[in-house]
């Protein structure tokens, strides 16, 4: 009896083993996951992919937009650098507005070229300003204090007369009409920034203001372009100056040209400034909050004579002469036409005007994020059309749609 029970247990155990073996073998027949195989260059997609659609079957749509730009530009562009710097006039309170400007310039241009940056202030820069800006700039940063004699009333200015003018402009609500510091700034930018000891180390400058924006990638060295093409002054925006701020500026200019006729260049851009061969000024000027220019020209005898002549006339304080018309008139009269340059490809914003490059293909290729409808170039208050006409240049294709 015990033997029969033992055999029965063996039989039951054997049946359980057979059942387990059946389930194990069934689970092993589940198909394994199909992973995409490596596809060598030049291989046919149908030969290498198990997921290739059959003939006549609808092709799946790509989930990304194709790009012809397979590689990102190098972080640092090859080649020699020019003896150049960015220059910014700022105060400690401008720290976050200038940080924004630096970020735009570095991302769109300077991360590839690593040019220096000079910061100038009529006071001492504090540690926070230096710490933040030096962390953002890829080149060297330098911090300079403006000499008091360059940021104060010269001794030949009648203080009572100047104060009366400021009060009158305030009543007329002329922009910055009652500001003393704005007048010091305009005079300094007109005649002194390029003479600061820190700037004497350089030959080229790019002026950057707080709160500006750059909208497109700049893939070439703008300083090298200026040098190789014999350019000495450049702009991106031009417009008419407020008439109330410069009522006697042109008279002072004519006095200068009569005194120093040798400083007026042949083949200049008088037609950009005047509609009657220099008798009157049409108030066109290049907007100087953006400039790329040659410092040796500004330090030349011709420009120094020009600035000193205007300075003695007192218009920086008895009126409200801006550095933009002062620079523009000098460039238009003392440089040849071909020495001036319009950077259509540098997309730029400074409140309230935008320069967005004319030409859709360029904007796409250079990853621009400006709205072409905001472009100021062909607006009736812009002088850029006049610059093209003065130089016999053809306007960019598509400009008609932006008028």
From TrEMBL:
<dbReference type="Pfam" id="PF01793">
    <property type="entry name" value="Glyco_transf_15"/>
</dbReference>
<dbReference type="GO" id="GO:0006487">
    <property type="term" value="P:protein N-linked glycosylation"/>
</dbReference>
<keyword id="KW-0732">Signal</keyword>
<dbReference type="InterPro" id="IPR029044">
    <property type="entry name" value="Nucleotide-diphossugar_trans"/>
</dbReference>
<dbReference type="GO" id="GO:0016020">
    <property type="term" value="C:membrane"/>
</dbReference>
<dbReference type="GO" id="GO:0000026">
    <property type="term" value="F:alpha-1,2-mannosyltransferase activity"/>
</dbReference>
<feature type="active site" description="Nucleophile">
    <location>
        <position position="291"/>
    </location>
</feature>
<dbReference type="GO" id="GO:0005794">
    <property type="term" value="C:Golgi apparatus"/>
</dbReference>
<protein>
    <submittedName>
        <fullName>Glycosyltransferase family 15 protein</fullName>
    </submittedName>
</protein>
<feature type="region of interest" description="Disordered">
    <location>
        <begin position="34"/>
        <end position="80"/>
    </location>
</feature>
<keyword id="KW-0328">Glycosyltransferase</keyword>
<dbReference type="InterPro" id="IPR002685">
    <property type="entry name" value="Glyco_trans_15"/>
</dbReference>
<dbReference type="GO" id="GO:0000032">
    <property type="term" value="P:cell wall mannoprotein biosynthetic process"/>
</dbReference>
<feature type="signal peptide">
    <location>
        <begin position="1"/>
        <end position="29"/>
    </location>
</feature>
<keyword id="KW-0808">Transferase</keyword>
<comment type="similarity">
    <text>Belongs to the glycosyltransferase 15 family.</text>
</comment>
<dbReference type="GO" id="GO:0006493">
    <property type="term" value="P:protein O-linked glycosylation"/>
</dbReference>
<feature type="compositionally biased region" description="Polar residues">
    <location>
        <begin position="46"/>
        <end position="67"/>
    </location>
</feature>
């Amino acid at each position: 009896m015990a033997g029969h029970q033992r055999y029965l247990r063996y039989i039951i155990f054997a049946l359980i083993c057979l059942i387990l073996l059946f389930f194990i073998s069934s689970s092993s027949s589940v198909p394994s996951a199909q992973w995409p195989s490596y596809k060598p260059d030049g291989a046919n997609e149908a030969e290498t992919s198990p997921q290739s659609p059959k003939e006549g079957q609808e092709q799946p749509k790509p989930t990304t937009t194709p790009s012809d730009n397979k590689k990102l530009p190098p972080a640092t562009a090859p080649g020699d650098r020019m003896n150049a710097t960015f220059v910014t006039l700022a105060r400690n309170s401008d720290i976050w507005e200038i940080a924004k400007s630096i970020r735009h310039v570095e991302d769109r241009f300077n991360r590839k070229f690593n040019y220096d940056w000079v910061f100038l202030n009529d006071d001492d820069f504090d540690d926070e300003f230096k710490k933040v800006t030096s962390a953002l700039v890829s080149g060297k940063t330098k911090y300079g204090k403006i000499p008091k004699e360059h940021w104060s009333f010269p001794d030949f200015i009648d203080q009572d007369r100047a104060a009366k003018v400021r009060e009158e402009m305030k009543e007329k609500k002329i922009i910055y009409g009652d500001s003393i510091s704005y007048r010091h700034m305009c005079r300094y930018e007109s005649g002194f920034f390029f003479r600061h000891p820190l700037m004497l180390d350089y030959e080229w400058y790019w002026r950057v203001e707080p709160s500006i924006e750059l909208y497109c990638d700049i893939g070439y060295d703008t300083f090298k372009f200026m040098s190789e093409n014999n350019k000495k002054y450049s702009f991106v925006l031009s417009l008419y100056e407020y008439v109330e701020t410069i009522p006697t500026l042109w008279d002072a200019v004519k006095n200068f040209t009569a005194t120093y006729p040798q400083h007026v260049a042949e083949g200049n851009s008088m037609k950009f400034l005047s509609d009657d061969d220099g008798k009157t000024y049409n108030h066109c000027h290049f907007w100087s909050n953006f400039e790329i220019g040659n410092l040796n020209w500004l330090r030349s005898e011709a420009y120094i004579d020009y600035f000193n002549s205007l300075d003695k006339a007192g218009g920086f304080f008895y009126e409200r002469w801006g550095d933009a018309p002062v620079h523009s008139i000098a460039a238009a009269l003392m440089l040849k036409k071909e020495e001036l340059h319009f950077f259509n490809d540098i997309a730029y914003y400074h409140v309230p005007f935008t320069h967005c490059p004319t030409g859709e293909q360029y904007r796409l290729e250079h990853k621009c994020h400006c709205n072409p409808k905001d472009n100021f170039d062909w607006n009736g208050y812009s002088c850029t059309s006049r610059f093209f006409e003065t130089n016999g240049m053809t306007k960019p294709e598509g400009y008609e749609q932006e008028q």
